[in-house]
Structure prediction request, 377 residues.
Amino acid sequence: MNERILHLRSSGGLYGAEQVILNLARELNALDCTNHIVCFNNISQDPHLELLDEAKKTKLSAFAIDCRGRFDRQVATRIRELIRSNDIDVLHCHDYKARLFGLWAAKGLDLRKIATNHLWTRSSLRIRAYEAIDGMLFNGFDSVVAVSELIEDECRPYMFRKNRLTCIPNGIDPRRFALDNREEQRKATRAQLGLKENDLVIGNVARLSIEKDQAMLLRAFKTLTELSTEQSHRLLIVGDGPDKDALIALSEQLGIGDQCLFAGVRNDIPQMLNCLDVYVQSSKREGLPIVILEAMAAATAIVSTKAGGVPKVIADREHGRLVDIGDADQLAQVLNEVLSNADDRRKLGQRARHLVEAQFSAHAMAKRYLEVYRGTT
Prediction:
């Protein structure tokens, strides 16, 4: 059976959930499915059509739908038209707004409706209210997928039929991160960024927002520079988001501004990860962050908080190091330990690479989603 799938996403940029959609669509196409990615063009805000652009670069079918507000009837009408004109069998909604309009558009149509919860941020009372409504919307779907066990547990109380809820971990294509001439690439990328070969470089790739807690990372980095004064440390932060200005101001306030590089949004993440000595995930809340899997595939040593599904992937001291959420002092101490031993960093990275190849491939993820689409799981 050749399933025809429409992925619906209201995006805030090219981040983890967007990479999941791209990986999933590519792998499902390889399994003889037909995939279409539909993005909201949020006209009254920053439209964020990076997912659309990236899909088209990789020859995936992609469309944009103009949206002028949360009650724009034309959005549902346009989605319905796309469903009909492309003979869609499966409508896969990837966020709250997509689920709201997706259910509206699919009313009365003969197709399977799937929802994936990539993350609830719980970042404010207003957001929590939306997430509670989102939880109730899940009951309009044939299946709901959580990307980690923590998210699955958060979804369960809202589900009238618990058997419609399943957990599918995210997956990536590790081949993208197996760079040729790694040392030459590392030197070239560092030179481009103004980093020296002997700098010990710590990196973070994420949306600059409260749940990612880069503020804690900055405080930990400040302590690290005090613990190890004989080394040259640099902090590379890749991404954009609502907290950018506040984080830059905090780095200056802490006296580490000249050691921090805010690189903005980048489209060369394999090269960014390859130039690091340690990748750091400082999040308060997570699902299963794609960038963790990407850092593993890049064989980069990882230090992460125990947020979301991370401890289910990384065994402490085996595939990386884990620290308590929000503990800047502990993060600084562990970073100092990891940066002090290049051989340990290499072993952590190699073991992580082997694990992601074996258990977290995009191909395995796509096969599990295909079972959900077909109602066999």
